[in-house]
Structure formats: C-alpha cells, structure tokens
Design brief:
The chain has 321 residues and is mostly beta strands. The protein is built from no helices and 20 strands.
Length: 321
C-alpha cells in the first residue's frame, strides 16, 4: 500500500452500445484490470486510476455486400484498451462514489481491414459496493510493513514477438486491400534505468521483419483478382532505436516507446513509430509481452505478441516485520 497506493487487480466484463447495433454492433468486452490510488486528499477522498486490457466480441464488421457503410471495424473480435482517472468518494464503510473520465480504444491491430479503430472519451459516474472491505487497521497494528530502500540499477529486457497483419497496398492515388495475411517477427532489447519501485526509463534496440513491407501490385482492376508481389528480403527488415518509459505495478508493467528505424530497406520501413506495451509477470524475471505498434501517432502497424526475460533484476522483495 505504501509503495503502490493500494493497488488492486482483477478481471472485468463490460457492455457497450454506440446507438447503431445493425451497422456497428453492441460489443461485449472481457478484460484484465489494475488500479491504484494516485494521491489521497483526505481519508474519504482520493484520486485514482484504473486501466483495462482485453478483447471485445459482438461487432458487426465491414462486409462489401452486406455492411459496406462500416469503414471503421473489419473484424468481429477486437482488442480493448481502457483507461480511467477518477475521484473516489468514500460514503460509507462499504459504499464509494466514483466520478471521472474514461478513454477507450477498440482495434484489431491490423489483423483485418478496414481497421480505422474506434475511440471514445466519456464522463463517468458510478457506485461501488465493496462486499468484503475491512477497516484500515494499518495505523493500529503492531506489525509495520518494512519497505527496503530501492537499489537504483540498470536492468536489461529481451523480448521476442510475432504476429500477423493485413495490408492496404498503395496503387496510384488509392489503397488496394491485399487478401493475404502477412507475418511479423521481431525483438526488443531494452537497457532500462530503474529509478524507483514504480518507474524505469531507457532505450530499446528494435528489430523487425514485416512481411507486408513494400508489397506492391502492378495493376488494379475493380472486380478482378489482383496479384501482389513481395520485394527482396532486405526491404522487409528494419532496425530501430526508441526511447522507453515504463510504469511498474505488482504483476503488470505498462510501457511506451517512441523511435525511428535507422537501418531499413526503403519505403514503408522508413518510419517514425510508437509502441504501447503491457508486460505481465510470470515468475520474478520472465513475462508475457502484449504490445501494439503504430507510426506517425495515427496509422496502425502490427500487434507484438511475445515473451521476455529481465536480466540483472534487482527489485527488492517487500516483507513485514
């Protein structure tokens, strides 16, 4: 509680409606969640955050013959990312009032097209009944949590990832949807300076093979089957450097990255890219990696599904005395 602000974890279920069930659908989201207190104003009022990460089903995807007005969502299952910032008002021992703002993002990570994504920004108000909440006895207990001084150090994360993606191939002044799904493989090597229990900053060496990079077609006629061509291998490989920052919590770490490819073939891989990643701890130094890459802060690149290991991990274990 002293280090992470009363962090909590769990799983959730949400139902969304956008007022257009026939064209967009009313999706249901299943997600993991984590939240904590940012600051406490009084014993009855605090500023909190909560993030949700999972998947959503029940969309009405784009279909050329049956649903061609929906140019936003191309798949019936999509990733779900949600962030909440809210004031938590403690009304009674078991009952809280929440008021704040929530930001949501739905996307399939370019595994299907179209994939414009759907974003919402909403005001939030709700009541929370805490069925098993006990009074805070920390101040009355003889047992005080011993928080070791944090040893600042440099750790090294190695991540291997893979995924698949669809691609809109530029022909003339428009994009033509390729029917093929292309594979993506890559790695990240992150030397990170651990500032304290909750923050890391550093750099990352990012290597990627993108099977869709620089794919082209020599002709396009509406209503006919097109042939799409792959360039030589070196035009689908890239090596980049990005700046990274991570917010560390129990079990989960959220990271962001901004960088650019310094070695690349040409064209599509001459990119200024951004990364959002979630690392889920498995054992002390290994983790599952779920990430999403975009470029120019707007255009989807690909998912980054993989595993990682942290070398020189010197995070202390918190015990009670």
């Amino acid at each position: 509680d002293r280090i992470y602000g009363g962090a909590y974890q769990g799983a959730g279920l949400a139902y969304y409606t956008f007022g257009d069930r026939k064209e967009i659908g009313n999706p249901v989201a299943f997600y993991l969640l984590q939240g904590a207190r940012i600051t406490r104003f009084t014993s009855y009022l605090s500023l909190n955050y909560e993030w949700n990460f999972g998947f959503s089903v029940g969309w009405k995807p784009y279909d050329y013959g049956k649903n061609n007005y929906n140019k936003v969502i191309g798949s019936s299952t999509n990733a779900y990312i949600n962030t909440n910032f809210y004031l938590n008002w403690r009304l009674f021992r078991h009952l809280d009032l929440m008021t704040g703002v929530t930001l949501s993002h739905f996307s399939n990570g370019n595994t299907r097209i179209p994939n414009a994504g759907l974003n919402t920004v909403d005001l939030k108000i709700g009541l929370v009944y805490n069925m098993n909440r006990k009074e805070d006895l920390l101040g009355k207990s003889l047992f005080k949590p011993f928080v070791p001084k944090f040893p600042r150090h440099i750790s090294y994360d190695l991540v291997l990832f893979g995924s698949w993606r669809r691609k809109g191939v530029i022909f003339g002044d428009k994009q033509v949807a390729s029917p093929e799904a292309y594979t993506v493989f890559g790695f990240n090597f992150n030397p990170m300076y651990n500032i304290g229990y909750k923050f890391r900053i550093g750099l990352s060496l990012d290597g990627v093979y993108d099977g869709s990079a620089n794919v082209f077609t020599e002709d396009y006629i509406v209503g006919t089957t097109q042939e799409f061509y792959k360039p030589p291998l070196h035009q689908q490989l890239a090596l980049g450097i990005s700046g990274r920052a991570e917010y560390v919590m129990p079990y989960f770490t959220i990271g962001i990255g901004v960088g650019g490819n310094v070695l690349h073939g040409k064209g599509d891989l001459k990119a200024f890219y951004q990364i959002l990643a979630l690392k889920i701890a498995v054992i002390r130094s290994s983790f599952v990696h779920v990430g999403y890459s975009i470029h120019d802060f707007s255009t989807p690149n690909f998912l980054m599904l993989g595993v990682g290991y942290r070398f020189n991990n010197k995070y202390p274990k918190v015990i009670q005395r």
